[in-house]
Amino acid sequence: MPQRSQLKHILTVRKKKICAALQWLNQNNPLYRHITIDQSTIDKLADDDVPECLWAAMEISNNAEAAESERSSYIPDPLINTPDSNITTSIPITARC
C-alpha cells in the first residue's frame, strides 16, 4: 500500500473548498437548489488530507490489463465491431494559413 505522503498531492480533499463548492452549487445551480448540505458529514472530513473513506476503499491490483480497463472510457469505441471500417462520421479539420 502506498504511503499517505505519496498520494496526498493527488487525493487530498480540502474541507473548506468542498463546503464552498457545495454552497455555490446550491445557490447557483437549479439542479442543486433542493439539496440540503449535511454539515455533519462535511465536519467528518479532515481539513487538508486524504479522506479515510478513500483509504478504506483503496486496493492494489497487479493485473495491468484490468487496471487499464478501469481507466478506459465508459463510452464504447464507435470504431470497434463496425461492419465497414471505412465509414466515418468525422469531418477533418484543416488549418489555413
What are the main properties of this structure?
mainly alpha; 4% strand; 97 residues; 5 helices; two-stranded antiparallel sheet; single chain
Please render the helix and strand layout as text.
Layout: H1 4-11, E1 13-14, H2 15-28, H3 39-43, E2 48-49, H4 52-57, H5 64-71
Note down, in words, how this protein is organized:
This protein has 97 residues and is mainly alpha-helical. It has five helices and two strands. The radius of gyration is 21 Å and the shape is flat. The termini are far apart.
Strand content: under 5%
Instruction: Tell me, briefly, the overall form.
Output: flat
Average predicted confidence as pLDDT: 79
Main sheet: strands, sense, barrel:
2 strands, antiparallel
Global Rg: 21 Å
Figure out the total of helices: 5
Strand line-up across the major sheet:
1-2
Helix content: 40-55%
Number of DSSP strands? Answer: 2
- Class by helix and strand content? mainly alpha
Uncertain spans: none
Following the backbone from N to C, one meets helices and strands in this order, namely: HEHHEHH
Protein name: DUF6570 domain-containing protein
Pfam family, one: DUF6570
Domain DUF6570: 3-43
InterPro entries: DUF6570
